[in-house]
Amino acid sequence: MTTESTARSTDQYTFQNPVTRFESIEPPAKSTSEPGLESELEPTADRGETSYRGTGRLTGRKALITGADSGIGSAVAIAYAREGADVVLSYLPEEEEDAQTVKGIIEAEGRKAICIPGDLKDPEYCVSLVQQAAEGLGGLDILVNNAGKQVAVESLEELTDEQLDHTFKTNIYSFFRVTKEALKHLGPGSTIINTTSIQAYEPSPTLVDYASTKAAINAFTKGLAQQLAPKGIRVNAVAPGPIWTPLQPSDGQPTEALPEFGKSTPLGRAGQPTEVAPAYVFLASPESSYVIGETLNVNGGMPTP
Ligand code: NAD
Ligand code: MG
């Protein structure tokens, strides 16, 4: 049943042309500092606020999502809530406003949304986040490691040791730390979904540190998937292509590249966060019971290995 807030004329099940489902955007050549805010994103993105329709595929599930305040993570949080799950939102303290917006959308569905801000570079937060999440939700059966840092740098000589350290701590160390703690709570039937990227196989010359962490996430996913499969815990990854989120105009791309963002894909346009969410729903749902160690590419048609 759709509630009044989710009733609409078109949703992800409407038969439509993927080329024109969303218009081709031309973002201004304007960069802000990271983390970017959804509330300041120009043009705005579609996170499924009025376009994602749930059908009960995650009824009663308990999900922890990192980077859930904005972009892809927020679209996943909205989709999970519409599918019937309660959600813990992890994000940086400076993103409180974005997180509150997502919390409001989830609560409008009658689902629980628990906000636990903190810095995933900090090993102690990685542990306390999981503990508080399991306590607040009364358990845990979906973990989405999605937080990420992406800052474009022209040359290796310009890549500071601080950025190298922060990119690896955020994008891959936190995946190890959060997942290790979550294993204390995840039982058979639980799922772990890691956000990797097309950058894992097609690294941009300006994203060498970021792309390296994304390749590591693919190996982490495929190795851990084999370790946990006998326990009934499935591990998979989603590899988005160019998706319009606050990550991109907050130094994620060279400023002059922003107007062309996503145009080189076979679909000819950037993807919207809500177009990525169904992949996370599928991988979290029991319907994907035989899908393990897989990387689901959601990238507008760019060839992948
Ligand atoms: P986003 O900026 O909306 O989300 C990233 C989130 O990561 C931030 O909102 C923030 O809450 C979180 N984060 C960053 N550093 C953190 C830290 N130190 N501690 C805690 N949280 C932190 O952008 P997005 O594009 O939705 O990114 C989500 C994921 O998707 C990232 O892993 C990104 O690498 C990946 N991705 C994005 C694209 C794209 O084109 N947008 C493509 C491929 C992969
Ligand atoms: Mg954010």
UniProtKB/TrEMBL annotation:
Pfam family, one: adh_short_C2
Keyword Oxidoreductase: yes
Keywords: Oxidoreductase
Record's keyword annotation contains Oxidoreductase: yes
Region annotated Disordered, chain positions: 1-55
Transmembrane segments: none
MF annotations from Gene Ontology: oxidoreductase activity, acting on CH-OH group of donors
Polar residues composition bias: residue spans: 1-19
Family membership noted in the UniProt record: Belongs to the short-chain dehydrogenases/reductases (SDR) family.
Name this protein carries in UniProt: SDR family oxidoreductase
Organism: Arthrobacter echini
